[in-house]
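Consider the subject:
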Amino acid sequence: MTATSPVRRLRRLRRLRRAERTCWTVLIGPLCAAPVTGASVMTTGDDPLSVPAAVGGTAFLAVLVLLVVFLLPLVHEWRADSLSGREADEAPHPVDWSAKGWARVRDAFHSAGLDTARLDAVSTWSPVADLKVVHVPQPSPGRLGRMEDWGTRLQRRTSLWAIGAAAGLGFAFLKDRMSLPFDGDRLLVPAVILVVALWAVAGTFLYHALTLNVRRPTVHVAIPRSWRTLLRSPAGAVLLRHEISHLRHGDPMRRRYLRHVPAAGKAAVCFDGVTALAVTPIESPAQTLASMAAFALTLTGGLYANSRARRVLPTLMEMRADAEAVTDRESADRLSGFLTRQQEKNPTRQKADRLLALSRGWTGGHCAPYARAVAAAWVFAAGACLPALGIWTGVLDGVSA
């Protein structure tokens, strides 16, 4: 393996962190650009809106998409995982750091600057020696938590979904033949009160979910008991430092975000692409063909960049943890040997990229999916933002009319 110096190690850590930030920007950038691209359409045409109204309306739409596509599925995942963890047959056992068998693990955490007294570590029985840093979702306190559990249990029953769908279809077909025994206007005030109450309860649920799982998250370090003997192996200390890096950077929560953020990003890519098409000139067949080609290229580049960034982010997290775990040439050799054995058992692209980075000492640039994601993102940015800039600067003024 390539020899490691402190200066080069810090340099590649900065490069990997910058690559992570770039991938997150690729995922959420289209959503942040939606107010500008949407307002470029709303401020032109036969009945244009004012700039503050157009930007504010599009920003509200972007927040609504973020709420429906990203935040609600994330909160639902928290509730389901929280209930499943509390209903598990075997509760996790807290690690007794004063026991002699955990001395090596305790010393490894102390050497990384972590206080084991404040570390929420649990021990597990596992046939695979795989130490994990896991985010443990917490329910809302009191009656709200019991209501969340009740709702989660109901959502697990597919029969209720079938009954609800059948009732909705029946009402849609029979509503013209049905007559209410009372005036429908009388239901307006109770309906408004019910909607306000539901919004208040939903806001309270959301507040508790964000407070308990984002501001003050509970993170367990699940340590298999076999790690007490694994640390005696040459690669044990390096692998433990690798997992400690995930703990220090909050990677468990980022992996949860990564399961839902791309969906919101794809919706924003489609919106930005359509708004860019709406303001481009289509006065002649040649302009129409050019506009449609630019729209197809913009949409393809945005969706491709979103997909690539989602795939490469976990690899970048692993590379960053490898870089922090490797302190000298000997530890790099041990980690490379461990990954080589794992790659022979279960070949994956991620382990191949990590081995390539270790062999090059991170001097050969980033992995190819990252570079392709950035290139595709630039193509999308040019196709989506240039028409909007043309509207704002007056170059394309009046085209959408």
Summary: The radius of gyration is 27 Å. The first strand starts at residue 93 and ends at 94. Strands lie at 93-94, 121-124, 132-135, 219-224.
